[in-house]
Amino acid sequence: MKITLLSLVILGCTLASLQAADFIVTDAGIAPAPIIVVKDAPPRTRDAAVTLASYIEKMSGQKPEVIDGEPKVVPERAIWIGVQPVVKTLFPKTDFDFKHPEETLIAANEKHLVIAGRDRWDPAHMTADGRLSKKTGVQQEYGTANAVYTFLRDQLGVRWLWPGEEDVIKQERIALAPMEQRYHPQIRARAGLFTKLQLGDHKEGPDLEWARVQRVQLDSMELEGGHGFGHWWEKYSKTNPDFFALQPDGTRSPNPEARHTKMCESNPKVWNQWLAEVDEQLRDNPTKRLFNASENDGYGYGHCVCKECQAKDRPEAEKFPFRWKNHGEDRPAVSDRQVIFANTLARMLKQRYPDKELYVQLLAYGYSRPAPIAAVPDANVIIASVSNFSMRSPKERETPMKQHTDWAAKAAHIMWRPNLGNPAGLTWGMPDVAMAQAGDDFRFAADTHCIGIFFDMFWYHWANQGPHYYAVAHLAWNPRADVQAVMNDYYQRTYGPASADLKAYWELLERTRMEFVSAKPSRMRAFELPEKYTPALLAEAQSHLDAAAAKLGKADEKYRRRLHFTRCGFEFTKLVVSTRAAMQKFEASKGKDAAAKAQVLANWARVDVMEKEYPAFAINWRSVFALGAPGGRNKRTEGLHPDAPLSPKTLKEMQAAGLE
Description:
Number of strands: 22
Organism: Humisphaera borealis
Radius of gyration: 28 Å
InterPro entries: DUF4838 (IPR032287)
Pfam family, one: DUF4838
CATH topology of the domain at 12-185: Chitobiase, domain 2
Number of helices: 19
Signal peptide: 1-20
Protein name: DUF4838 domain-containing protein
Strand order of the largest sheet: 3-2-4-6-5-14
Strand content: 5-15%
């Protein structure tokens, strides 16, 4: 084919015109486009704008000016954060009427870029009490901030790998072709995915910042992970003993313990007192929208046997072993009675506050995991399904997934709230990762119209579990994301020239834990880790790390630093396996094997050194290899120290599978 000079000229002009149509953020010889933040922006929105300016500087070496409020003279080029009056003129064909909660918008033309979203906040109530510190900059929706973090990831290619470790691509020219991108997340309650990384959990640092930029922390719905009446016995038992569950012996006594005492859910006085507490909470925080009516923990014990409560149970429901003091019998699931209770409260709530969008939360947990037979949750009741199919074997997943599906068919609003437990050493910091399964789980949650998540819980061992955290963070924002593509990108951006070796390493560990949980049905299987994590398996994993090290000898220092982080995790893995193997010998000898004891104590001494030498966030040392106070017992250390061998109860449970 002949290419004439005229064709080349036309092609050159076409390319030039296409290039001219790009919006230029930065380029050599021109000032970066200023960032103009909507007037009186809430703190989290302005923080996001400052973060954007910081990353543009990291990428290009040029830092844009951040301007608060629309200037009198509109710049020739600008990045607009939030919807400002002039933006509608600059983007006449763009719809700025956000119709969905948390909706985000990123739009660019030749001269301007707008990054905006649906924001909701009450300027008079932007601080609140958190678990350990004050929540600040509180909003009910953070659409614009999450739009900025989306832009940083999708358009500028920034990756936040783990707390304090990011990957930024250096480029002098940052340009965008004309585009418009909209999104609103289906899962609106996301902060509970990482319970310790929520606003107000502790002082904001790199770990909380990681959750924020992953668009997990700043969400738009509440979901409580716990129970609704834990404080009631202490507060009301002396003045109102009739609030509490009638026991078969005729008393209304704590069972199994005070904070787990069940309610008499058919008692109107309980309903009225619950509503009075709602009134008090709303006086303190008028923005609160969700109120917990979930029965207290200890689901097998102490349920009310008064005739009014029992009348709400369905005789044909699935039977469970109920227990009281000195008494036990098989009885139907309590799902129907609890939904009737939640509906009663929800109707009272709606009557009291007809102009507010308020919800009652009810855990589907323990003996209410099966869906109700006849009762249907009202439209302002949110079911939090404690369905433990995450990180489980295919067989273990069947029942909880069916229970979740059945609840979803009944409930207008459902959230997923699993107990993670310690399936393959998750608590201990083992490489207990299941990224592929997580992709299936979140698609399943999306298919069952799930609007919230709360995981109890991850333990933040980033060197051994970081890829799993990364995967579920992305899935929380988009439950239909291609998890394999997300992880391939993660390996490439994290490890560069050694990405294939590290992908093989992580997939080996993922495959190993899946085989382990499938072969061992007990929820106590982690105590048998040495059976699966054999010297041969560990040598195979080591070979992938060694191959990666050989490739990174002359690579960018950042890749070697990240490999070191991962290798620290693997060293810790070997130490956990070694410790448990020695403890098995010690336990089998009934505490007489001195050599095994010495090996365990030597490993504990090595942990003290690791804690000082390892990078920040590699292992959460407070969750494992910590005996606690003298004379105390840290349940997460059971089976890992000579002073904490496996108890008879644990040994019995190792032979059984059951509810968690």
